[in-house]
Amino acid sequence: MKFICSRDRLTEAISIVQKAVSTRSTLSILDGILIDVTDKGVQLTGYDLETGIEAQLDADALESGSVVINSKLFGEIVRKLPEEEVIIETDERLLISIISGSSVFSIKGLSAEGYPKIPEVKDAEKIIIMQGILKDMIRQTIFAVSTDESRPTLNGCLFSCDGTNVEMVAIDGFRLALRKQQMGMDLPIMKFIVPGKALHEVGRILGGKDTELIVYSSVNHILFDTGKVRIVSRLIQGEYMNYKSILPKTGETNMTVSPGAMLSAIERASLIILSEDRRCPVQLSMPNDETLVISASTELGTLREEVPVRISGELIDIDFNPRYFIDALRVIDDGDISVQFNGSNGPCIMKPLEEEDFAYLVLPLRR
């Protein structure tokens, strides 16, 4: 095996596939990156038996072959090479030579025969979506994915398509994030649960708004294909929570507010809250129909801040975990939003004033 490539492009490819390299496996081969050189080009692969990432490397393929090299060591070596041009080759003993300028590394490799194959996504439905759109949808839902392993279906996002709209939903038991995108085209009917870890890596890899991405889904796996990078993940099996039944249609109190102003005030309040203990919430109160008072009180001190709003309905006083509001408000790109409250103990819903592109549900803390 032998190829020549750019150090910077190789560094980029390594950093992409490293996201799928196992960090806690008892199999040493899963700590490595598979390098595969054929007459079609050079491909790097990382795979932890749950998520696999393949990256095509722009390189001159001089001699076909394959080898597995320790991921961490490979990445550190390449990042510190002195010259832009890199030559990589192996001999019959699987000794890998990495040559750049006057630096020559010789690293022991492993046989590619022992590297597990990434599952092929066969008999798959597919949709084509712009990378920028899916990147935004992931950013606006991923924070609400549960990490509670006792409820495995909530460890991922529900991805569904009704033929014209794509929707993503995440729930962790205390909050819900929903993002909908109208596609304006005929799409297949699809519904599956994608692990949060895989979606997190997809979101980091996706590029510009005008670049297409093909998403393939089969019974057990999903494939995200950008052309240069392919990400395959096992799907989560099971029935997802009926989230539509927990989204209130209306609110007893309706508030219109700037998400930026509300976010800044809650972030300032959270500065004196050093833990997520229920005894240290942020308090929202409404002295009149034009003012929202955001306050917090801990051993460190207190904060009280007024935010201009428009309120209709019952004036209430309610407590929340500030992080739940902060996570949602940070990813809202719209102007003013509607915040609906359902009494002092009912769920709070944040959504656009007119469109149905997103909705965020947050449960209050009981006093």
Task: Describe what is shown at a glance.
This protein is an alpha+beta fold and 367 residues long. Helices cover 16% and strands 43% of the residues. A hairpin with a 2-residue loop joins strand 8 (95-100) and strand 9 (103-108).
Task: For this entry, give a set of tags.
8-stranded antiparallel β-sheet; 6 helices; elongated; alpha+beta; 367 residues
Rounded mean pLDDT score: 93
Largest sheet: 9 strands, antiparallel
**What fraction of residues sit in β-strands?**
35-45%
Strand order of the largest sheet: 14-11-12-13-26-25-24-18-22
Number of strands: 26
Total helical elements: 6
- Which spans of ≥5 residues are poorly predicted at pLDDT below 50? none
- Which structural class fits the helix and strand makeup? alpha+beta
Overall form: elongated
Q: Which range best describes the helical content: under 10%, 10-25%, 25-40%, 40-55%, 55-70% or over 70%?
A: 10-25%
Distance between the termini: 66 Å
Gyration radius, in Å: 25 Å
